[in-house]
Structures are given as C-alpha cells and as structure tokens.
Amino acid sequence: MELCRSVPGARGAVFVDYEGESVQRAVLDPALGAYDLDVAGAHAAPIMAASVGCRVIRLVGHEGSTFIHAVKDNYSVVLVTQPGTLLPRAMWGLRHAAHRLKDLM
Q1: CA distances to 40, 50, 91 from 4, in Å
Q2: Taking a C-beta distance cutoff of 8 angstroms, is the pair 15, 39 a contact?
C-alpha cells in the first residue's frame, strides 16, 4: 500500500514470486479488482524471465501503464497506473519498494 500511496496515479500493486503467484497486493482503484492485479502479476514472471538482465520493464497501454521491477530471486513488484502518471515518480516509488522488499527477504 505504501508504494501505491507514494505514486500519484497508482491504481494498484502486487508483489509476486518466481511463478507469478501473488504474495501480497494493494488496490487503490475500486475499478481494478484483485483478480486484475493477480493477472498482471502472473504475466510478470515470464516477461522478466524473457528479459534477461533487465531490472525494470514498463508496458504502456491506452488505459495506463504497468511497471515490473525485479526484486530478488525472480520475485517482482508490479505497479499499475493511470494514464499520465509521471514516469520519474513511478520509477522512484518502484525502486524504493523493491529495495524495501529485498531487505525484508
């Protein structure tokens, strides 16, 4: 929830394991359900596996952006945002969340 609150325009976030299974999620936008976040998280594992050496990926669509940030041991944090969310703010929030999660692992 801290990640979502730190990024204006965040709709929700999910922390996923190496198989894309949801470990923990936070939803701010009532139009975005837990299932939607779980689906976004499930796609994070194969996307990151195919992007060897990449730490952050941004997917942009007409309804907003999805950011995937590697944490550790193939775990990732996924942030779903509204259109127009400022890239530097989203990247700062993701980097901060990934470091905090890594420290807790």
Answers
A1: 15, 26, 12
A2: no
pTM of the model: 0.91
The partner residues of 10 in beta bridges, in order of sequence, read 81
Residue with tokens 């193939």: 74
Q: What is the pLDDT of residues 27-48, one digit of tens each?
A: 999 998 899 999 999 998 888 8
Positive/negative CA dihedral, 40, 48, 92, 84: negative
Say if CB 64 and CB 48 are below 8 A apart.
no
For residues 93 and 64, give the distance between their C-alpha atoms in angstroms, rounded to a whole number: 16
DSSP class per residue in 11-69: EEEEEE-TTS-EEEEEE--TTS-HHHHHHHHHHHHHHHHHSTT--EEEEEETTEEEEEE
